[in-house]
Structures are given as C-alpha cells and as structure tokens.
Amino acid sequence: MVSFSQIPSDTRVPGAYIEFDSSRAQRGLPGMPHKAIIIGQRLAAGQVAALAPTLITNAETAASAFGRGSMLHAMASAFLTPNDATELWAIALDDDGAGVKAVKSATFSKVDGGEDFGSGIVNLWIGGRRIRVSVSDDTTPAEIVTALVAAATDPTLPAVLTADGGTPEKLLVTARHAGATGNDIDVRLNYYSDERSPANLAVVFATDTAGAGDPEIDTALAAIDGDWWTEPVMPYLDGANYAHLHDFLKDRFDARDMRDGVGFTARGGNLRRRPYLGQWGQLPAHHHDPGSRFSDPALGDRGRLCRCCRVPDPDRSRAPASHTRVARCPARQVRGSGHAL
Asked: What DSSP string describes 278-311?
C-alpha cells in the first residue's frame, strides 16, 4: 500500500491523485561546492587593502573595494555578468614597484593633406569601450585628439587618455596598472561593420612603451591557503605566476587533500598561433617534460579561438568569463584540459 502525506486516505471523490514527496530527493554525498576567487590589481582609491580576501556580491562591491576601473573591478564585472550564482571572492595586489605601465598611441592625420577630413564620426575603441566624437570639414588632427580626451569620461576604461605634449595630433593611451597585462589593451577604430571613419582620416597605432613587471601572486595564494577555493582566476600569463598557481593547485589534487580545484586564465590569439607554455619554456623544468607542451591538469589556459580572436576585451576580462563557460558546464570534464581550454 502506498502511503501519502498530503492526500487523505479517506478521500471519496473519484479521480487520479498525484503527490510529490521530496523527503528522499537527496541521497548520497552532497554536491560539489563552487567557491571562486579572482586575483588581480587594485587602484589606490580602493577601500580594501591588498591581500585581504573580500566577498563580492555585485560589481559595485568590487568598484568600492578595489577602485572603479581597476583590474579587479573589470574582472568581477566579467565574472558576474553571465554568472551571478557562484560564490565569488577577490583578493587584491598592488602594482609591482618595478612595474612599467603600457603606453599605446594613435596618431591622427589626413590621407590627403590638401583636403578636409569630411564630416563623420570617429569611433575609437579602448579595451572594448567605445569613445565617439564628431568630425567636421574644418576639424584638425589635434582637435580630434582633444575631443577624444574630453570624451573619455567612462571610469571603467582600462586606460587613461592624454594628448602628447610635443605632438598634439598624437593620442596617448596609458594603462591604469603597471605590468604586462596592459599590453593586451586593444586600441582600434570601428569595431562594428556599420562604423565608418571620415574618408580623409588616417590613423597610425603604435606601442610606445611595453608594459612589464606583473606582481607575483605567491603572497595572495599564501593569504588564502587555509580555505577551499574551487576556481581561482588570475589575469597573468608569465611563467613565474603560472608556476605559483600550479604549485598551489597541485597539492590540492593530491589524494590526501580534498580541496581540489581548477585555475583559470586567458591568452590572446587563436589556438593555432598561440604558443604553449612548454614550448615557450616559461615553466621550470620540474613542471613539464623537456620539449613537451605544457598540459597542466589544474590550469585552464583559455585561448581565444578563431571566431573571437579579434574581440576587443582584454584577456583579464575573458579569464573570469571563461570560468562560466567551462567550470559550470556539466558536459565537459575540466580536469586534464589545461592546454586546450
């Protein structure tokens, strides 16, 4: 006889009665908990000091804690936009004292010096953020630069725009943070197919100063070592930081430690063109076999595949966004796919 907890046994009204009993719905071991942490740099305006793990519930929390427009603010926004369910924390680093900020430039001129620009709109994209200014027939290259600097009011821009003091028609784009991560800030005109520049406008893009000197994450990893983090995310691509994160996660894959996890980062370029870490020789010898491709079971190096290799967002923003596509996909085995993500 089937016993019901909600349908009375003495019901005399004919019919088919259905009751759902959830008392035995969950059996066996509990599900895998997800607790992600992003590691990145803060701005001086941030209210939370470096190396202090902070719970992030929304993008505004990250903006207040680490500075609006900071690396961690951008990473938290990229993480939470497609995924507001996973528990997210962040831990900040200050810029390395020996770090160098990346500086890119855009020099404006006329294709035909004897002709006007022609009316139109200049659509300048900085790290996936668009800045628009109008151009008329009598506009000069220096005035375009001045207008772009004045229009760059978005506090989430990953760089600061200024006019070159000695060359007024040259726009300088300086990364907010020191380090090599500033090198992947995309600077371009006209991302969408319907965007058009004035017919007589010419722009030359260049890298004036290469960013260098990412902060090392070993101190941040030491500060969070006592907790279980299932998905640490970092924006750095240098061998030293890869090795730090590798060592941090390797011990957690051990049979004696139940705090296993998978790390995430991102690398620009498509899968065919981007080199593997082992081929670059970025990791010490004990992290990979000599001459082999680096395939770490605990690290997901999210390469941009052919379809999206020209996406203007910085790699630092694509790393946390990749977490949602990979770590939360029940159909994909994450462990062992470090070289192919």
From this structure: HHHT-S-GGGS-TTS----TTEEEEEPPGGGTT-
